[in-house]
Structures
1.
Amino acid sequence: MLANVLAFGYRGGIAKGKGCGDSLKTMNDGLTTSGGKQPKQRYGWSGEAVSKGVAKLCGKGKRGTAIMKTTIRNLTAAIFVATSLQAHAQSTLDYDQQSATGPVAVIGNGNADGLHIQTTPLTQSFVPTLSDISFVQLEFADFAGNGNSGATVYVDLWSGSPHVNSATLLGTSASVYMPNGFNNSGLVVAGITNFYFSTAITLTPGQTYYLQPVVASGDNPWDIITIGNTYANGQLYDNGSYLQPLTDLWFREGVVVPEPTSAALLGIGIILACFRARRNRNMTGPVRKCEQ
């Protein structure tokens, strides 16, 4: 949207031979009327602020008009690039603690097993090195004969004890629905699900925490996958006691690394435009006041 408005200001002002003042007015009018709303109401910035910023970069006279042309062109191109990057960008998962680095097959794996979540509370301990957590991945299996409804599951994060009756609840993830016959990642009878906390939960590196999968509704039993004793800094508890033989849930946890926001991308574009504009200020030629 901003790129279109700047182009509109360029075509309606400078390209038609108007001076800086008329060009900025044209651009500001475009920012004010585009989309039927003040852009500050929609995007957090105003047409006046953008046009003043460009005017300050440009300076006055013919040299200022020439610089303004270049600035608007460069800023428009930068915003187009930033918009494209944002449209194709995805959030990155930064893994901290994990019992496996990828999906683990259930079929043909003597170490893998499915445990009923609803029978007794299952808690997986882990010791983070990062200072917060914003997501958990777990592997589930929908075995035949348990119903046809699928299941809705969430994850509780506890501290203080593997027994939830004496532990402190730190947070609960958003619930995730898994349909009947749930599977993905080429696991045939199992699948991996991401659980996200609405905001990152602060952790103390080196302290022990506990993840508990909870079935809110759906098929009973609904199974979660264990893969043997593969995680050195924790293990799986059943109702607060070590599960024998020792084993771990398939789990991965960490933080979501946010992609640059629209404001940050716009800032990059403006910085690039500023750099080019300042270079062009060294142009020689007569200087006169902007036409009004």
2.
Amino acid sequence: MGSRPAADWELPVAKRDKERTADLEAQRRTAETERALHEEFVGIVAHELRTPLTALRGYLQMLDRQLSEPAAERPMLALAIEQADRLNQLVDELFDVTLAGRGGLAVEPGLVALGPLVRETVEVAQALADGHELRIEEPEGDLLVLADRARLQQVLLNLLTNALIHAADSPDVVIRLRRLRGRAEIGIEDHGPGIPPDVQARLFGRFERGGGVQRRGLGLGLYISREIVTAHGGTIEVDSRPGEGTTFTIRLPLAARPVAATPKAPSADRQNGADRTTRPAGATSRRRP
């Protein structure tokens, strides 16, 4: 039995569907091209700004060391160094977001104990706390992960800084470490105003500044944090209710504990007393009983 010929009304419908599909595909390709061009432009700008900013910071620091007046008598220089550092941080964020858009941030993992890393990061963040207590709760024993230590500290500092800024009325910020079903969990909890649900839905997007607080910045910190955690095979999420505070939770795969090397059995030569190790004149070999 032959196929039924298409009715006259079916031909325009099929043609419209085909044209609509082609239009959608063309729009998708255009959007991808525009995004690639945007990321390339941002990458070029970040790269070009890095060199003069590095030189500027270096010159300011040299000037700071050469001046004989006490630091309190030259406040403008300290402010200039602070702003140069801030510009450098913004450029680093632009560079990171470009790398993320091109297929992910590069990480150099090594064995990291989370307890010491968290304590060190909290010590750094304490300078920004302005009266807030940063409290650590951790289990007995080390939590070991395979991670890029510097990148992971970047994420922790970003989350702690956000907590101190957006929860300025919170009496403390709690950092909790837990071991949970083969994963290490880091929770950062504040008792601030919380984050509205509509803001939470887009919180990890690019150029998202959050709500409730006017602050400087590009709104890239949480996006970059998510990309870094994802590059480690982990997850990051937020749990918040207006008026009840906010908790950011990072989960990373636990690393296997390193196995101590098994001592090699002594060779036949050593067992027979033919130890060929060269010793200084007068040196003696002592055996443990």
